[in-house]
Amino acid sequence: RNGTIADISTLVQDIESVLVNGIDNSPDNNNRIDRFSLDLANTLKERLIREPRKPTLRMSNLGKPDRKLWLEMNKPEEAEPLRADTYLKFLYGDLIESLLIFLVELSGHTVEGMQDEQNLYGVKGHRDVVIDGHLTDAKSASTFSYQKFKDGKLKDDDPFGYIDQLDSYLEAAKDDPIVTDKDKASFLVMDKTLGHILLDTHQKQNKDYEKFINDKREMIKGEIP
Predict the structure, then answer these.
(1) Which pLDDT value is given to residue 4?
(2) Less Cβ crowding at N or C end of the chain, within 10 Å?
């Protein structure tokens, strides 16, 4: 455990305090900065050294619309090639998300379980982090998308299936002792243009994930997108 604060409700204001006031030049903070440098190097390596991967059902794509998911699984060769600006956008987003978690740690909150592999009825995924016992997913967003998180409209307009992804991590962590908050999870979101930060919290859906995942598998095996 890296921190002393145990109340995630103060997270955003504590991060803002770090940004406004800075940090002490202590051995602990210098060690955190060194670890963050390694995290950034690993992120660059993962994004730029690409190994061929067969598309699989994962927690990150469980919530995608069925037709889109079917095409990704069955016809990946027909997808339009990603452009340079898209790859750069993804890389920039990953760096921002790593920065957010680094700031959480500097602000004194407990940071655990980073990128731990999760397994839910055979579907795997890697959660972002557990902060103060609260499962959290870091996101970078455009100003337009950030407003959707801020206004609580994600549940009504979620084209990438973010809520199902977050909820599946929470379901997979139901017996995980470091996740002490079993009823809700949050997105820690940064507006990558304006630098605003918020915590968007969602209650557990209590979905029948065994049936949900089996239905997805059957859909993917079908011949019709």
Answers:
(1) 46
(2) N
